[in-house]
Give the backbone structure.
Amino acid sequence: MSSYLENTPDENGYFGKFGGSFIPPVLEKPFEDIKNAYEKIKKDPQFIEDLKYVRKHYQGRPTPISFAKNLSDYCGGAKIYLKREDLNHTGAHKLNHCMAEVILAKHMGYKKVIAETGAGQHGVALATAAAYFGLECEIHMGEVDIEKEHPNVIRMRILGANVIPATHGLKTLKEAVDSAFESYINQADTAIYCIGSVVGPHPFPMMVRDFQSIIGIESREQFFEHEDKLPNNVVACVGGGSNAMGIFSGFIDDKEVNLYGVEPMGKGEKIGEHSATLTYGEEGIMHGFNSIMLKDEKGDPAAVHSIGSGIDYPSVGPEHAHLKDIGRTKVGLCNDEEAVDAFYKLSQLEGIIPALESAHAVGFAMKLASKLEKDETILISLSGRGDKDIDFVVENYPIPNAKF
């Protein structure tokens, strides 16, 4: 029997009814060229070897799985394990697809890469890949996120990227995507767009998932070393959803493994207070793809909020919408306060400072673990480290005494 990944998406980029490509005519040929080049290069032995080499000798893969014994004991239930994408070079999972996308760009003869970024992790990763392979790099980032994630902005600039503020609307991730697409339209003959998640028009949701699937491939093998069985539950934060699709891909055909995509509940249930797209959204087209999105009273993309800049997005990857639609994945929720609590708990119990985005997965997993038996297991995709967030967190949330 063929696997889910071999059959999904279809040739038009649809995951069930979600996905596709809804783009202006000026971008149809560039995106078709990208799709054709990817279909060709992914079977090329040289590309596969180049990617293996750079992942092993530059990125630091494979990243390990760590047993969070102290956190598990604190929660008093299931055993919690962490897939340590925070140990990937640049501090997050984003380099998994950025290195591959830049190799693809070079293969296609492009000299420049353009992208959006939310928390700055994708921007840093793409700037790193561009520096490594000798390409120009242009990163669009919301003005609010530029101020909030200042360390990553400095890193991008040190790496040689041109960081362009998105100054319209809420000045966060959605606006960064708007700005990047607008810039790309005028440079599509000389530059390639490198989308930062499993979102956007076909082939990007498929392509980014495939590049991120290394997380799931490694996790499946490594977890057996710890438990000699598959995990009962796999948990990952979801904004666009690249780290989640990366780890889910390793277990998607194993129906006995529960897959939880954790959304940011922010400050409340009202529109503009959260970014819980799969929980409160409805079908809609945005940024060139059909998925589930949060809408305002006019049917436009709604205002969103999350303490994690990388997950405050009013839509979600079409594959996540599809997997929820067919009942393969479950949705977890974690609000700002719970994420900050998880940020400090993981730091003080395990000596690991997580990204605020990743802290949402940890926060939900802590709640889940307390309800499960001690012989059950949870594997968390710890998608990134929290260096970028420490100034913001300590300025707004006092450091607690480490007395649990």
User: Anything to note?
Assistant: The first strand starts at residue 14 and ends at 15. The longest helix spans residues 25-41. The chain has a mean pLDDT of 96. The radius of gyration is 19 Å.
